[in-house]
Write a structure and sequence with these properties.
The protein is of the alpha/beta class and 202 residues long. It is built from seven helices and eight strands. The relative contact order is 0.14.
Length: 202
């Protein structure tokens, strides 16, 4: 079928990987240091990758291509997970990295992924993941988070925490860091019970 699909100019690509991070379908990957359209049927033609590219290497074209296969994309996500960055532990993360630029962040208490069965597709999909445990780590997260928020272009932040009181330290640290960064970053806090239930706000 003839449809709109992305094309990547190999000469313009600088290998930053931002497009691969921005592609929620997993259609783009890095091959020999260059962005590559790995699966044409994974490209939905919406172009989330275009604004992420700093060199203008990505554009649309109308051509013969297989239809977008949403079922295959969902199956691949369920099989491989939705992790877009590594490491994920806050103490190990750099304060500056390409994956932060234009990113929606998920800042998750460690236990959340074990209590909520569909954690990858419900919370991690399309986001950069950061995990932390305020009770175990015993550090002031707000200092490092302030630097990450201040020095990078963060679009939004979702915090997932458990119902236990110690998890309040995580959402408090994020709120403090946003304030200290001087930026107005949209924040959503989701509270999860040990049984995997999403609790009502407030």
């Amino acid at each position: 079928m003839i449809r709109r699909i992305i094309t990547i100019d190999n000469d313009k690509c600088n290998g930053c990987g931002l497009c691969a991070t921005a592609c929620h379908e997993g259609a783009i990957g890095m091959v020999n240091g260059k962005a590559t359209l790995l699966r044409e049927d994974y490209c939905d033609g919406l172009g989330d990758c275009l604004p992420a590219c700093p060199t203008g290497a990505i554009s649309f074209e109308e051509r013969e291509a297989p239809a977008y296969n949403e079922a295959a994309v969902l199956a691949a996500k369920q099989a491989t997970g939705c992790l877009k960055n590594f490491p994920v532990q806050l103490k190990l993360l750099p304060v500056s990295a390409p994956w932060y630029q234009g990113a929606d962040l998920l800042i998750a208490a460690d236990c959340c992924a074990y209590s909520y069965g569909n954690f990858h597709s419900r919370f991690m999909d399309g986001k950069i993941t950061i995990i932390a445990c305020p009770k175990l780590d015993g550090v002031d997260y707000s200092q490092k988070l302030t630097t990450i928020f201040a020095e990078n272009d963060i679009k939004s932040i979702t915090v997932t925490r458990m119902t236990v009181p110690c998890c309040g330290g995580l959402s408090f640290a994020v709120e403090k860091a946003i304030a200290n960064s001087g930026k107005n970053i949209p924040l959503e806090v989701v509270t999860i019970s040990p049984k995997g239930e999403i609790m009502p706000c407030g």
